[in-house]
Amino acid sequence: MTATAVEVHPGAQKFASERGKLLIGGRWVDAASGETFPTLDPSTGEEITQIAAGTKEDVDRAVAAARTAFESGPWPRMTPDERGKLLWTLADLLERETAEFAHIEALDNGKSVGIASFMDVPTAVQAFRYYAGLATKIQGNTMNLSVPYAPGARFLAYTVKQPIGVVGAIVPWNFPLMLTSWKLGPALAAGNTVVLKPAEQTSLSALRLGALIQEAGFPDGVVNIVTGFGETAGAAIAAHPGVDKVTFTGSTEVGKLIVQAAAGNLKRVSLELGGKSPSIIFNDADLDSAIGGAAQHIFFNHGQSCVAGSRLYAQRAVFDRVVEGTAAIAKQIKLGGAFDPDAQMGPIISNEQLNRITEYIDHGVKEGAQVVVGGRKRDSAGYFVEPTIMTNVHHQMKICREEIFGPVLVCQPFDDVDELIELANDSDYGLACALWTRNLNTANKVSRLVHAGSVYVNCHSIVDPAMPFGGFKQSGWGREHGPDAMDMYTETKAVCTLLA
Fold first, then answer.
1. How many CB atoms lie within 10 A of CB 18?
2. 199: burial class by Cβ within 10 Å (0-12, 13-18, 19+)?
3. With 60 labelled, which of 215, 278, 414, 419 sits at a CA distance of 20 to 30 A?
4. Active site residues
């Protein structure tokens, strides 16, 4: 029996029916051009509402408002404790509206409303609370100096951490609310002001969060939100001489463009980019747990996750069993819309991304890969593709080297740890790695030698604001989360005083 579809939360429905505006200097305004663009429901392909199409002129206004808020008014005079209280209040308000935000995220992104309820919104609440506490723990150091060219002189030397200034934060569409919190939390805790650009496909939760930011009592201009396209609003933020730092999560290709644009004023840049993460299963693993974990590592959030385990390596003795097991799971996954309680995997974010995924699958087949299960898009409303598993692959294939960002798993066998390390590290990316083994020595060796910013042993995709998150190689610069993240939003100043 099919369960009745979940009804859309009335608050989410009302908010989604309103035209989205920009938040600049504490006021909700239209784009300077008056232009708008549609945001679509990936489950149906239908328009949800129209959103203001911000461009360079709007970014200029937002940066000016953020600069004013940073240099004058109440924000720069607030103590760390006061900033922390505002962040904690924001977390409380967001938690209060969990159901509404989960439904907004489901409408706009297509992910299950259940997943948004137990992961996306609570994780964002947790991030704001973590950085609320960290606001009062930004510390410098004192030093004893011995200066050869100043014999006998004594100095008081210390460092202080200061906010960078105006931060441009550009977030992607796969976890819109959660990744917004990862950027706003540390930036605001450190005392910066922000110009936020959500992904054009998923702007609604950021706009709703803007209303909560106002309700929490943040001064006008501390957080500004400019919706629009990457090549207009995003590019204007990256190149703006009044922006002191850009933080970006998205594709490696766009990350490289941001680095180029930032060169004008040498603004600080942090990047959390693509991944082609390996899932590794050894002979001695608990195979039931490993097979289920590897399937979840790629199919969770429809494969639209930067840490998705899109390359599966299983030791040769268990390779066939692992492929059969993951294929059996894939076959049982029910596709459905965000409000279908029976659905286990939702739609891809857009028709463009759907076509990109199926083109990768077709290209892999032409190069000799074998589709074990899936491989097709669903001929119905919405942007759905079947969970797909491919074998008979090698590392020269595009499907093994490039980030597909969808529910596509490529599988290869390996014989020993040394071969595995070579295979796992044969990638331009180095974001994450998940491995399953009962052997502690094997786990420690792989964890040490694999090129990845996060290594998960007998688990996968674990994130927590206390644990640094970021990648090696072309997976990015810097680390989100933890005290490490505060270094991305502060400047270190050394102060040296000659003592009498």
1. 12
2. buried
3. 215
4. 272, 306
| Helix locations, 285-350, DSSP H | 287-299, 316-332
Q: Give me 107's structure tokens.
A: 């409408």
Quick one: DSSP state of residue 105? Answer: H
* CA torsion angle 42 45 50 52 (round to 10): 50
Cα dihedral angle (13, 17, 20, 23), rounded to 10 degrees?
Answer: -50
**Tell me, which fold does domain 10-273+476-494 have in CATH?**
Aldehyde Dehydrogenase; Chain A, domain 1 (3.40.605)
Which numeric CATH code is attached to 278-464? 3.40.309.10
pLDDT in tens, the chain (500 residues): 345 678 999 999 999 999 999 999 999 999 999 999 999 999 999 999 999 999 999 999 999 999 999 999 999 999 999 999 999 999 999 999 999 999 999 999 999 999 999 999 999 999 999 999 999 999 999 999 999 999 989 999 999 999 999 999 999 999 999 999 999 999 999 999 999 999 999 999 999 999 999 999 999 999 999 999 999 999 999 999 999 999 999 999 999 999 999 999 999 999 999 999 999 999 999 999 999 999 999 999 999 999 999 999 999 999 999 999 999 999 999 999 999 999 999 999 999 999 999 999 999 999 999 999 999 998 889 999 999 999 999 999 999 999 999 999 999 999 999 999 999 999 999 999 999 999 999 999 999 999 999 999 999 999 999 999 999 999 999 999 999 999 999 999 999 999 98
How far apart are the C-alpha atoms of 500 and 497, rounded to whole Å?
Answer: 9
pTM: 0.96
For the record, the structure tokens of 454 come out as 């996060």
d(CA 447, CA 461): 15
Cα–Cα nearest to 466, from 126, 139, 174: 126
Nearest to 103 by CA among 191, 40, 10: 10
Q: Where are the domains of the chain?
A: 10-273+476-494, 278-464
Contact predicate 160/495, CB 8 Å = yes
Which of 186, 123, 184 has its CA nearest to residue 461? 123
Please answer whether residues 202 and 51 qualify as being in contact, where contact means their C-beta atoms are separated by less than 8 angstroms: no
Question: Hunting for tokens 């506490």 — which residue is that?
Answer: 133
User: Tokens 């029916």 identify what position?
Assistant: 17
